[in-house]
Hints:
The chain has 999 residues and is an alpha+beta fold. The protein is built from 32 helices and 23 strands. The strands form five sheets. An eight-stranded antiparallel β-sheet has the order 5-6-4-18-23-20-22-21. A hairpin with a 2-residue loop joins strand 15 and strand 16. Helix 27 runs antiparallel to helix 28 (853-877). 43% of the residues are buried. Its main location: membrane. Residues 392-489 form the SecDF P1 head subdomain domain. This is Multifunctional fusion protein.
Amino acid sequence: MQNKGLIKLFAILFGLVSLYQLSFTFLANKVEDDAKVYAENKVTDNNARQKATFEQKYLDSVANKDIIDLAVTKYSYNDVKDKEMNLGLDLKGGINAILQVSVKEVLKSLSNDSKNVAFNKALGAADEAQKNSNATYLDLFFEEFEKIAGDTKLSDPSIFGTKALSEKISFNEENKTVKVTLQEEINSSIGTAFEVLRSRIDKFGVTQPNIQRIGNSGRIQIELPGAKDIERVTKLITSKAELQFWEVYTNAEVQNFFFSANAKVAELLKDDTVLEKEKDSSKKDDIDDLLGETTDSTKVQKNLFTYLYPNVAQSQQQLSSLVAQAKVLDTATVNSLLAKKEVRALLPAELRYVKFLWDYKTITPTKPANAGDDYEATELIGLYAIKGNRNNKATIDGDVILDASQVFDQLNKPEVSMTMNASGTKQWAKMTADNVGNFVAVVLDDYVYTAPSVNQAITGGRTSISGGTMTVAEAEDIATVLKAGKLPATARIIQIEVVGPSLGQEAIDSSFLSFGLAIIFVLLWMILYYGKAGLYADIALAVNILFIFGILASFNAVLTLPGIAGIILTIGMSVDANVIIFERIKESLTSMKGLKQSVEEGFSIKGALSAIIDANITTLLTGIILYVFGTGPIKGFALTLMIGIATSLFTAVFITRILIDKSISKNANLTFNTSISKGWFQNINVEFLKKRKVAYIISGTIIIAGIVSIFSIGLKQGVDFKGGRSYIVRFDQTMNATEVASTLKDAFGTAPEVKTYGSDHQLKITTVYKIDEEGQEVDEEVQSALFTGLKSYLGDTTYENFKPGFEKQGAGVMSYMKVEPTIADDIKTSALYAVFGSLLVVFLYILLRFRKVSFSIGAVVAVFHDVLIVLGVFSITYSFMPFDMEIGQSFIAAILTVVGYSLNDTVVIFDRIREFTGTRPDWKYSEVVDKALSSTLGRTINTSLTTLLVMLAIFLFGGDSIKGFMFALIVGVAVGTYSSLFVATPIMYDTSKKEEKNK
């Protein structure tokens, strides 16, 4: 093999980079473990909410402290956290939600709530059509409007030909051009909602949040791994953006109050600052030292200015709307101190209704010139004093904004241009006239986005906001915020999945147990079967695993439970590549060729490499389809599958080759078997084609039975396919599912579906109760009804502790999922596209690779055979299996994996048939096919048995949420192995005979 040195160098460097990237995960975990210890020591009553608060307090305190020093560079906890491997919701807990911005409400708002009969009828018809259609709401509205509008046009003054839209929609304009304008306005509203949500999430404090728009559907996906306060999150992402314009006090107007408040706070904190000694004085609390908490009785005098740094104005030139600053970590403390009634009592009459609001963005102070290397820049945030009133009503509300955009002034500096409607123009003229020489604030969701000075009254309705240091990005953000004033609808949750941290940790523990057992089994089997060569394959396998995790960590990819299954599946494929190579080497050795020549042949294109590449490409194509059409955990599975295919090819072919060549150069005697495995699967000669009719009868019988079951019994569709709410609830005692279903009938009107989930202390409760009703209050009502219905089984558990989120010590909701029927239809359609898309792509690839339609037909028929049998098994057995067997997105991932695996097997066999056809022209075609099948039988059994046992380990010891997924894979791999021998190849043979007759 050429370029060994280059390959060695690449492998070593890539391995070191992978270890380097993974080290950040270990370091972050260590800090978080310390945070948990700190929280455990602080909370004695197992209050999960308090524990989470103390954990976050600890992590905030060390966020910018250096925890690793590499001499050339240092890393803080925040730096390490940014580089660690991301864990998905099913491993870390948290919330994943898809929100829908109501296009209907956008249209109604743009029409100024038109009363036009045709317009409102079209909206109602579009509502009904959307229930059974994947088209966008705007397209459906246009279709319905065209049907019933007659001569009425959308540009009619009673619909969209309004004064507010006069610059964008002309009178009597054609509907198709109006549609373009409306689409632009809708996209703008969705973009605004997206920016508002992103701003809120950035302030929520969750590490590695993910928010993205889903095409032009009006949907926004939000994932917050590690989020525990689920109630707060849902309120945060569903509340309507509230844009307001307020007058503000200057720093000079509030500074005297701050000085008085400082003295009062010092008095209030006098007793609170005496920290008691730890009860156990024998243990020095290093964590408290780190947080700056003393463990002795020394008095530390604190006051308001310990946390708040007032912006003092000593002259007219120093007047500012910024009244103070504080460390970001101290904002909660400042809020608490300023809200104390003793402090509020110090406010003079003119400041009685003052509201203190924080800036929307933080600033990092510039490092002083004389600062040393140990200087740590602390993030600060500005404080503003808003002129509130008795009714807490803003001077101007944001719904008066018509448009806003980022532009450049005459000096080419960025600024924001803003246009108001007629009502807003009058209000703005008065507000600016009253505040010449003072400041006004633009406030969104109680955060100040800008508070510029007013130089003169603005009467034209069009104005600009600028600042000496404003950047283009900041101007674009402010423009987006201003446009949020016309945000016509709240974003409602149409799909949500919540996983509690306790369930996530259990998933991690069970996953790594199954992962470890699977790896140990594979490593031992390879040594048992191939001896020293198997050991080399094991080393390559270990390098492969390192590379996979290193790549995931390097690119901040998300590792999910199905993702771990994907990694284990790629381990099986990596082993498969070595098995194919070793079996070819053994064949060459059997034909009395030398060891060196046999190794050359085994690793060549004419040997095993062609089959390996073909098999991996078919699986890679399946992975790509999965990644394109999948969401959440499915994407995680597809990503690890694709990464694993690339790394396993490299390690199985190159790393193993280097080790074997080195062994040969030392004159080692490699036999590629052991005394135990010697002679296994050798000299096999099975006449498979003579048994094909029997195989057809067996397969046909099983498929017919499955189809009958599917049409009579049906399939158990998951919530993500049919819509509904699903709760996994844990109890302190053994539960009877039938009894609980009967008990909940009164709460939900009809009995929900209740099934034991994992242990007999845990139930999965699925209901469609009020799923067609919208609103966050409906979700709360259903959850409250569930609690009421289960109250007799929950003991002392309160409703607060019952709700999902935070770690659970006793009974409560461990995870929760809601999918509305509309998006459920979309998910189902995407799944069907994924399945048929993968079949089409594979059909074309095999046709291109083997140049015969018969090969493609044989492969695709076998795949259909495998899919139908898996579906039939699920239909027949779901009612009595002790684990969840729902048909949902994870099941589709399993089906597509089965497709890939079955094709992998089939392609290896087809490759050998093609080889024998070229090298044995004197043989009958039936003999060529039988010999090819017989020669690959050892590889087929070896790989399938290894993969099945690995999957069995995951099935038995993995998490409860993955058992149905793994069961589908186990059935699929077993059936796929059978079909590659008894379906794909015989169908190919029979089809090719017909092709020959037709020539």
